Amino acid sequence: MPKQKQFLKSQRKPTKPKNTIPQTANEFLAVGVDLEEAGEKWRAGDAQKSARFFLRALDDYENGLQHFRGSFDLAYNRARLQYELAQQPRLLRHVPEGTLDLLRTALNSHRYALEISQENADLLFNTGQVLTSLGELVSEERYRNHDAAVVDPLELFQEALTFFQRCLSLQELQFSQSDLAPQRQSIEADRNAIETTSKDLSEHPHPVLQPSDEDTWATIMEPVTNQALMDTLLAQVETLTSICGLSSIRGIGDPDRIDEYYRNSLHDKLLVFAKETGRHHEASLAQAKYRCTLADANFTATMLDIPTYEKELMGAYDIFPDSDPDPQALCDRADAEIVFAAGVQKVWRQVMERGPVESMPEDGARLSIIRWKHLTKALDNLTVAGKLPNAKNLPRIHLRRGDCELLRRRLGAAPSNYDIALKSASTLLKNAEIYYRGAARLAKAEAAADEEVEASIKEAVVIAVSTGDHSQLHERSDLQRARAQEIIEDMNEEGLLWEDDMKSSGF
After folding, report:
1. In the chain, what is the straight-line distance between the N-terminal and C-terminal CA atoms, in Å?
2. Which of 248, 10, 2 has its CA nearest to residue 127?
3. Could you tell me if 240 and 161 are in contact, meaning their C-beta atoms sit under 8 angstroms apart?
4. Long-range pairs for 471-479: beta carbons < 8 A, 24 or more residues apart
5. Measured between alpha carbons, how far is 367 from 408 in angstroms, rounded to an integer?
6. Residue 399 near residue 428 (C-beta atoms within 8 A)
């Protein structure tokens, strides 16, 4: 989430102003912050009411900027709040703009704030986050025909990395200066105290407190901590992982160059600040995910063979013990196993395209065994993760379990024709149906609209394929036909369906 800009308000109970219309930038700021606090109060209980307060706060910041275009605080708060709303699915239902449009608006607002000041580390960090979120969204298949798709997600990730690097450089400078700050501040405070006392005694022999009729506001300039530096380092690693992943999918880029940046700019610093902050677990998760993504990029670039890629995958998560399972590590590892299986499938497809060779049947059987093994491992990891009390996003976990079953079933189709998958096809379909139904139920309980729609459509597709009953699919598709079409096309492109399944589903 974006970093909040902290403000200090006077503790005196404010008197009701004679004119309720804000007249100064600080007054607009005060109204906006109060509205945000009201929105936070209702966030958990009444999402619609909460969203109304947040939208009113945005209107207030917008109106304030019409009168005070150079107010950094108003510009910062507007940009930050827009991004926060884009990250809250429950609130987005009650916001006029969709996620994509709101993220684009938030990016423009961050650029506006940057025109006022480019020396605020929090603003640089938040801008990088907006670019990353936007890049992730336009990378999704459902936005491939959207007008925003003309924006290359790779360029968004690269720009985000630049902002995180600028943020880190500024934080490191401020962090180094803060070591001497206490001593300088003490000397300066003593000098100012002496000067102020002398002046007051000369001008006011009997000083009298003069209360102000207005609330006073001041921006709190929080010192840079090693925790803040760690946040920025982790954000850089995650963004670099996204760049690496896109490069792998497209078969472009130089994995060695990406890894050179990681090792020269991030690796050592990450180890140092993980130790100083005690955030070894977060660092290990980020490094493992990066390592697997880099291995896949190298494999796609034919710089790794299958055994070496498999070794890299296994080694990345060895540091997470089975005796103390971590749900996020298990889910990340499952995703890596699925990507590995897809990479092996890609190699097999390339072999098929080159034409028949004498060893092709043996090679195909060997690769099918490898893919089945890793998809089964992915399913096992997701199953364990879903049972842990601290697991997050259970609907997504169950969705991935259903996907794994369909991917295993897919191995029974030509050209793999894997015997175990073929014999287990009906069981795998039934398992997928159960997992998707469970995901839809959990998503509904959590008000996760996107996951609920995806799970319900996938469940209906599986029912149509396995039983020939299209009634549920037609019923659910009629409500959101465009989205249903996208989900089914994605299922086909991701290898979840056989070639004949698309005809069976009626699309």
Report:
1. 39
2. 2
3. yes
4. 473/505, 473/506, 474/506
5. 13
6. no
Find the helix or strand (DSSP H, E) in which 417 lies: none
The pTM assigned to this predicted structure is 0.84
Read off φ and ψ for residue 218, nearest 5 degrees: -145, 140
C-alpha distances in Å from residue 146, one per residue of 138, 151, 454: 8, 10, 19
Q: Which of 128, 331, 397, 319 is nearest to 238 (CA)?
A: 128
List the beta bridge partners of residue 217: 9
DSSP state of 67: H
Sign of the dihedral through C-alpha 500, 502, 506, 507: negative
Residue 293: closest CA among 157, 391, 402: 157
Alpha helices (H) along 146-180: 153-178
Asked if 494 contacts 409 with a C-beta cutoff of 8 angstroms, the reply is no
pLDDT per position as a tens digit, 269-327: 999 999 999 999 999 999 999 999 999 999 988 889 999 999 999 999 988 887 789 99
Quick one: CA dihedral 95, 97, 100, 106, positive or negative?
Answer: negative
In whole angstroms, what separates CA 429 from the centre of its chain? 31
